[in-house]
Each structure stands twice: as structure tokens, then as C-alpha cells.
Amino acid sequence: MWFNTRSWSRVTQEIPDGPIRQYVVDDKPDPATPLTQARLLAVDVETTGMDPKKDQILSIGFVPVNGTQIDLSGAGQVLVRAGVEVGDSASIHGITDDAIADALTPSEALDVVFGALRGRVMICHHAAMETGFIGNACNAVHGFRPRLSVVDTLALQFRLLSQGFDEEPPPGSLRLWTARSQFGLPRYAAHNALTDALACAELYLAQTAEFQAATTKPLTLKSVLKY
């Protein structure tokens, strides 16, 4: 949840027309929605570093999840024009300074992502990264931080590994690729926003199937929402 010193009604009035305003003013998905009917969007950001306060977004990948199905027809990735040289991160993400120079502005990239997010709940692995960077980008462009409904697959993995045990999961067991391996999911090349978003979507479906198998009651969005 994001907070702002101004009243939220005043903030919404000041948001220009476009995908972000539509996302903000639309009713959010009902937490009582069965997971088999829920509309979600797996999102991953690739950045120049780990600190949302000083580092910048290089690319954002997203993949829709409709109930128990991944919709690759709605998947996408946007490169974001950074205000600094990419430098060493090019060797990690495969994104060069030349590519970033031809990328979308942060405002344009946010419009694409929030257009895809409309009517959906965001899925991320370690959601603080995605919400932190996207929130900061919105604040820099529009002067506010959106309230985002999020499912965090890292938090879901913690719940799965902690069930029936007093101790926390061992170090490293909550990482995306380690969590996927526990469900027999394949390992993809890391540090690509679209691929990582797909990996997160697949992990979410495996995790929720595991949760559903443990109960006779249909699971709802409320059972997996982080905030």
C-alpha cells in the first residue's frame, strides 16, 4: 500500500487522462474472486541496481494470467530510457546503451504497463522490488504513488515451506529459480524481464495448485494477496 500526504481524491483529480488514471479510478478486482476466475499480470523489472531510490528501470516484462491459464498473446516487454549510462549492467541484462537510447520514456513505459495491468492484480517475485521501482517511477513522472494490489510468489513460497515447521526455510530456498526447481519447473536464462515474468507466472500457478490441493474449499484472491 502506498501513502501520500495529499488526500487521495485530490491526487486522482490531478492524474492526466491515460492508462494510469484509468487503473487508479477503476474498481480493483474483488478479493472474493475465485482464483480460477482471477485476472492477474506477472511483472518483472530489470534495473541498474537494487535500490529504487537511486537506481533506474531498464526494462519491464509482463505476462497475463487468466484463472489457471497463462495468456502469452498478451505478454510484452518494454525497454525504458535510463537517465544514466547502463555500463556494467549491460553484461547482465544484455541491454546496451544504444538500445536504451531508442527505448521508451519512463512515462510511455508506465502507460504500456498500466494498460496491461488494468483490471488485474500484479504478481511478482519479491514484490518490494517491482512496487518500489514502479512506484518511484510514477512519483517522478506524475507526483504520486499508485496503490497496487499484489501477489508475491516469494511470500507464497515462504508459506509453503514453513507449513508445519517452526524454523524458517533455509537460505536461498525462496529465490525464484530455486522455488521453481522444487516444482520441477525448467530453468530459463535469468535477467530478462519478459522471461522472468513468465517464470513468475508459472511458479504462481504451481504454488496455488499446491495450496488448492490441501483444501476442499475453492481458494480466492484474498488467500494469496500480499497487499
Name the CATH superfamily classification.
Ribonuclease H-like superfamily/Ribonuclease H
- Secondary structure: helix percent: 25-40%
Termini gap: 6 Å
Mean pLDDT: 88
Specify the number of helices: 9
Structural Rg:
18 Å
Please identify the top-level CATH class.
Alpha Beta
Strand content: 5-15%
Total domain modules = 1
Q: Unreliable stretches, pLDDT < 50, 5 or more residues?
A: 1-5
Tell the overall outline: globular
The succession of helices and strands, N to C, reads: HHEEEEHHHEHEHHH
The total of beta strands comes to 6
Structural class: alpha/beta
Describe the biggest sheet? 6 strands, mixed
What is the CATH architecture assignment?
A: 2-Layer Sandwich
How would you portray this structure in words?
- The protein is of the alpha/beta class and 227 residues long.
- The chain has a single domain (8-223), classed as Nucleotidyltransferase, domain 5 (2-Layer Sandwich), CATH 3.30.420.10.
- 40% of the residues lie in helices and 14% in strands.
- The chain is built from nine helices and six strands, in the order H-H-E-E-E-E-H-H-H-E-H-E-H-H-H.
- It has helices at 8-14, 19-25, 89-93, 97-101, 106-117, 127-142, 153-162, 176-182, 193-213, and strands spanning 39-47, 57-66, 69-70, 76-79, 121-124, 150-152.
- Strands 1, 2, 3, 4, 5 and 6 form a six-stranded mixed β-sheet that branches.
- Strand 5 (121-124), helix 6 (127-142) and strand 6 (150-152) form a beta-alpha-beta unit.
- The longest helix is centred in the last third of the chain and has 21 residues, at 193-213.
- The termini are close together.
- The model is unreliable at 1-5 (pLDDT under 50).
